[in-house]
Design goal:
The protein has 237 residues and is of the alpha/beta class. It is built from 10 helices and 7 strands. The protein folds into 2 domains: 2-84; 97-235, 2-Layer Sandwich (Endonuclease, Chain A), CATH 3.30.870.10.
Length: 237
Amino acid sequence: MKNQQLDKILQHTLEDFRLSRGERRMLSTTLAELGAAEPQLAVLRARAFNIAREHINSGADNSGRIDRTQTAAVIEWLEEVVKVMQPAKPRREIADEAYFSPGNDCSRKIVDLLARTRHKLDICVFTITDDRISDAIVNAHSDGTEVRIISDNDKALDGGSDIERFQRLGIPVRLDRTEHHMHHKFAVFDDTFALTGSYNWTRSASKYNMENFIVTHDDQLTRRFSTLFEQLWKELS
């Protein structure tokens, strides 16, 4: 029954020699219902070739000559159908990464991540004094990325802190004003991956301190950090 259903779909789409978005979606759904793995997909592709061949042969005149224009249209249709009937590519898992200081690996990686962020950047860091990182944050903001920063009020007053610079440039900043410290060091990039660890975004952390952070692409972990950021953002309003 399913194969007959597939044949009907293919015959229907061949009427105008094209595969519309809706027809492509219908075909993909039918293949999913069939549970088509590569061996079965190969059989189904052969069925599509047979349907195309029959359609071309049916258009031949009494002398056996075939309409080239119609043949070209059928071939284009067949190419679209075969693309849908390819096995799904396995999802590429992106490995998590770890970085350590002293040294420039941590600061370079943060700057790289900031430069790659396109839409949304949530930063929750105890202190930010490394101008290399601060410049990258400002550049992201200037390029249209939605940037929000949470930091500690006491550290915002330290010499070299870039919090006032961010505020002056119109980057939304919220500070923890409790008697305790906002000691987090994490960031979420485009809601798709997160950075977290002991590393403060400072020159001294880069040059002298034994620090670390990881970059995780795990969806569940990233959502946890995003949820925490939203919670803190509301609490510190």
